[in-house]
Amino acid sequence: MKRYILMILLFGLVATAIAETKSELDNRVRKLMAQFDALQSDAQARIPADRLNKALGVIVMERAKGGFIFGYEQGFGVAMVKKKGEQWSPFSFMDSHEGSFGAQIGGKSTFCVILLMNEAARDRLTNPEVSFGGEAAGTGGSNSSGVGSNFTDDPPVIVYGTSKGLYGGATIKGGQVAADDKANENYYGEYYSIKDILFEKKVKPSETGTDFAKKLEAAAKAK
């Protein structure tokens, strides 16, 4: 029975991986946007506006995993970045796989928002794979190995999710996040690296990307 449940989860991920036309990818991102709205509408779980306002990068992901029983996870999402005082970039598609990414935080959340709070954390998105490798916490003074420790009020990485809101002390060691190059190519019409999309402004934001950026900006100004 456990194996059967795991196969259902993985089949869903394979099916979405095959469905990679621009329209289908837009629909998947719109689903992420709806999940973000649901998170922000929950007073106990929402991301505080001041933290979202300070963030220099965001990864929004939907994940399927077997939790503590199966020890397997894979996810689909998008990443966006900005410089202080500037607007959010177009999004790059991302995926996560392997390890225990987020598995130590209650185990059953299927949606999370990862805030990258400083330039070191944000700029690591250009690496072939990003493994935060330490702790992503919800209190000042926590450290995330490899993403820098030059911060005061906020740790470099903060993770929120639909099940319990702030994932204080969330262990994400062993989980990798990487650009989904195939999805990016299908969406933008040709190959662009994640650096091209997020940092070099070589693609224009799509209508969906613009709408998502507006949601982030509105949430950062909410009272």
Please give a quick description of this structure.
With about 220 residues, the protein is of the alpha+beta class. It contains 8 helices and 9 strands.
Report on the structure:
The chain is α+β, with helices and mostly antiparallel strands. It has one domain (2-221). The chain has eight helices and nine strands. The protein has helices at residues 2-18, 22-41, 49-54, 67-70, 119-123, 181-188, 194-198, 207-221; strands at residues 57-65, 73-81, 92-97, 111-116, 135-136, 157-161, 165-166, 170-171, 176-179. It has a seven-stranded antiparallel sheet with strand order 7-6-4-1-2-3-9. A two-stranded antiparallel ribbon has the order 5-8. The longest helix is centred in the first third of the chain and has 20 residues, at 22-41.
Characteristic terms for this protein:
single chain; alpha+beta; two-stranded antiparallel sheet; 8 helices; 9 strands; 36% helix; 20% strand
| Distance from first to last alpha carbon | 46 Å
How does the overall form come out from the CA principal axes?
globular
Number of helices: 8
- Main pleated-sheet profile: 7 strands, antiparallel
SS-based class: alpha+beta
Task: Count the domains.
Answer: 1
Strand order of the largest sheet: 7-6-4-1-2-3-9
SSE pattern: HHHEHEEEHEEEEEHHH
Uncertain spans: 2-11, 13-17, 67-71, 99-107, 137-152, 164-174
The total of beta strands comes to 9
Give the radius of gyration: 16 Å
Strand percent estimate: 15-25%
Provide the helix percentage: 25-40%
The mean pLDDT is 76
